[in-house]
UniProtKB/TrEMBL annotation:
It is found in: Membrane. Keywords: Membrane, Transmembrane, Transmembrane helix. This is Magnesium transporter. The chain crosses the membrane at residues 12-31, 83-103, 109-129, 136-156, 176-198, 268-291, 303-322, 334-356, 368-389. GO terms for molecular function: magnesium ion transmembrane transporter activity. It is a multi-pass membrane protein.
Length: 399
């Protein structure tokens, strides 16, 4: 049956709104901090554990980082070395507990539009932490995505409540339910598999251009010992020692560019897979995990079903975390998060409608036609916002 939103007092509404905003800010901060940590790892300089290291043996152009012995500097150094882990904690805690806590104070109908506030925080933290250039069109696109999400949540959303286990089994056994979620599963596998294929292809191309890690390390040792026997210039030798190129720098740079030209596509596919996984997680919860948790006694069939649901839930949560972290390796969170949010919002609405139509003997509300129309309108606005954001970031239209 369709669920009615619980009555909400003014105090509960204020508390719920504040919780949502704080959780979204923390989650956006965590994602961008993870992206910053990943960048720090890829740009890690040569590190010495103390200041007593003989610096005379190092080349003048070699980047050095000397750990200070003072307590405050050690703390800053520790934080710098663990940015990804700190960001992961800041992201995962709101994802696991934010919605559960907020739902104790506000209606689920208000949760989604408030969740779109995370996009504003994402733009802010992306500029603050990573240094992403944010232009006028980035803000316009973010506003469109938030407006579309609000339309979908307020006017195009129906909360479905399944109250007994037999109804849940009949819903999951319906042809519409099976066909729809099979298509969603295939779409998830396609996006994730294609992203992995392109990533592996890129790694192989880079390994051919730059050589294996052993070759790079051997070249670096030879350079430091001054025993390079070829006739390379000093600049070319430095590039060779750092593993940046081989002789024929121009050709190598062209091959490196060819290997990295699909980064935007890889990041987009990973972000899309993350949004699909998140929508499936929400669908699993709506399809009865709360019902299973409240059941005192379960039959053997119900136990098997509940185990399958929990396994699918665990897989979808892990995929959501892995794909989102993969996405921010290849593209900025300024792009990854809106793409993630677009797929999550769009599929969450369609998931709810499919579940509603799959419930046997359910009397549909009279305004279902209006609901579907508003859902389509909101999703169209969201897709338009993501297109504007992608155009602004990829083409470089920053004003």
């Amino acid at each position: 049956m369709l669920a009615d939103p619980p009555p909400t007092s003014t105090t509960s509404l204020v508390v719920g709104v504040l919780i949502c905003i704080l959780m979204n800010a923390c989650s956006s901060f965590g994602v961008n901090l993870q992206a910053l940590g990943l960048r720090k790892v890829t740009e890690q300089p040569l590190v010495f554990d103390n200041a007593e290291t003989d610096l005379d043996s190092a080349e003048e152009n070699t980047p050095l980082l000397i750990r200070s012995s003072t307590g405050s500097d050690r703390i800053r150094q520790w934080v710098g070395d663990h940015l990804w882990h700190i960001g992961f904690i800041c992201y995962i805690i709101p994802q696991l507990f934010g919605s559960i806590i907020a739902l104790n104070f506000i209606s689920p109908i208000l949760l989604a539009p408030l969740g779109s506030s995370g996009l504003l925080f994402n733009v802010f933290f992306s500029s603050l932490l990573i240094g992403t250039k944010v232009g006028v069109w980035d803000w316009v696109a973010t506003g469109l995505i938030i407006a579309g999400g609000t339309v979908v949540s307020v006017f195009g959303n129906v909360d479905v409540l399944i109250k007994d286990f037999p109804t849940l089994l009949k819903t999951m056994a319906s042809t519409l339910f099976i066909v729809y979620f099979s298509v969603i599963g295939i779409l998830l596998i396609f996006c994730f598999g294609l992203a992995l294929t392109l990533e592996i292809r890129k790694s192989k191309m880079l390994s051919v251009v730059l050589g294996s890690d052993e070759d790079v390390q051997q070249q670096s040792v030879q350079y430091e010992e001054g025993r390079l026997e070829d006739a390379e210039s000093d600049d070319a030798a430095m590039q060779r020692a750092e593993g940046l190129s081989h002789p024929g720098t121009g050709a190598v740079n062209g091959r490196v560019a060819d290997a990295t030209k699909f980064d935007n596509h890889i990041g987009f596919l990973f972000a899309s897979a993350g949004g699909i996984s998140a929508s499936m997680t929400l669908a699993l919860v709506k399809c009865g995990l709360n019902l299973l948790a409240m059941s005192d006694e379960l039959s053997s069939e119900e136990i098997v079903t509940s185990i399958a649901l929990f396994v699918c839930l665990a897989i979808s949560v892990v995929l959501q975390l892995v794909t989102l972290n993969k996405a921010i390796v290849f593209i900025s969170p300024l792009i990854a998060i809106p793409v993630f949010y677009t797929f999550f919002t769009t599929l969450s609405v369609s998931n709810t409608l499919v579940v509603m139509y799959s419930i046997p003997d359910l009397e549909l509300p009279a305004e279902i036609g209006f609901t579907i129309q508003m859902a389509i309108l909101g999703v169209s606005v969201i897709v338009g916002g993501v297109w504007v954001l992608s155009y602004s970031s990829f083409v470089g239209d920053k004003k």
